[in-house]
Amino acid sequence: MSDDSTPRxxxxxxxxxxxxxxSRTRTWVLRTVVLLAVLALVLPGVITTISIAGSNAxxxxxxxxxxxxxxxxxxxxHFEAFGPGGLGWECYAVDPFDADHHIASLGLxxxxxxxxxxxxxxx
Length: 123
Known about the structure:
Blueprint: H1 24-68, E1 74-83, E2 86-94, E3 100-107
Antiparallel strand pairs: 1-2, 2-3
């Protein structure tokens, strides 16, 4: 006969040892899939941002070189960590003898030089 506090369905129940819900292999695979998914979401944005910044830097450098050194043979833009202006895009003019001349530091986010915000009035 069973105790009144225990239902009849559980009379023959024997408790077992709890085990992890997921095995180590399944946990590792799940973490890998999540990491790859996050990279797949973030990486295109990073690549696009770098591409657009490089294009903007090239255009800004071409403009600056045309003003600063009109006789320059070409322009070069490099992203430098320890350049003359610190971390960011650096603009160089190349003379006909392939010597580089530093023209300007364009910063991390290069913009067209001389572009200023126009103040607006609230009238």
